Structure prediction request, 236 residues.
Amino acid sequence: MDLKILREIEKNFILKMDKRLVYTKVKTFNTSFKKEEYKKIPCSEGENNLNESGEKTFVFEFDKMLSYPHDSLYMEKFEIKDTVDEITLENDHLPAKYSSVKLMFGTEDIESISQAVGETSTIIQSVTTSEAYKKTYGGLSGWFPDDGDKADDKNKGFVARKEYYNGKTTITMFYPLRFLFGLFSDYPKVFYNIPKITLILNRISTEAIVKKIFYGSKFKSVTPIGGTATDVKLLT
Prediction:
């Protein structure tokens, strides 16, 4: 059996805004704007490089707007080809594809995770999210935690992921960045006059991703890294 890896189509840093205040030469209050809007920031390296390893950079340069990073998101759209019933994506797979992540304000490094990005995300969500979150917004971010140590129908998380991912050609995920960056989590304030907010995600190689984010009985283990090169076939 061959399993083809997912192909990433689009990545965006989605920053929550509050546009009620519009700054020109004179500070004015404009009630015609919606209270909450989102600004989509595409990957600086371009769509042709989304599936390559290395840094993926997202730069927000609208310093005269009010932003609310606490509710900001990382959006990714991807395709999965040739999935089979006994294999699906791992729980919390999005951050696991990156070896490091960094947040910068201007030229200053504000916060970074230099290793175990996926594990960090999983620990944070395990202790900060509720059962209600898992049943509502959890699906949008890829949060389907396992409740067993086997890839079988008794494992409700595994069953839910199969139902959510398998058989679909295009999937869009929204991952809350407060599950990675403490500043976004612990400082729920509106930001203004920051010259540049930069998000940098360092993507691991496609071969490493294949072994890391798929889960199922084919791998003979609940840890997908147990898969071998003969288990997968890369998309070209």
User: Anything to note?
Assistant: Confidence is low (pLDDT under 50) at residues 19-35, 219-236. Residues 100 and 185 are 18 Å apart (CA to CA). The first strand starts at residue 4 and ends at 18.
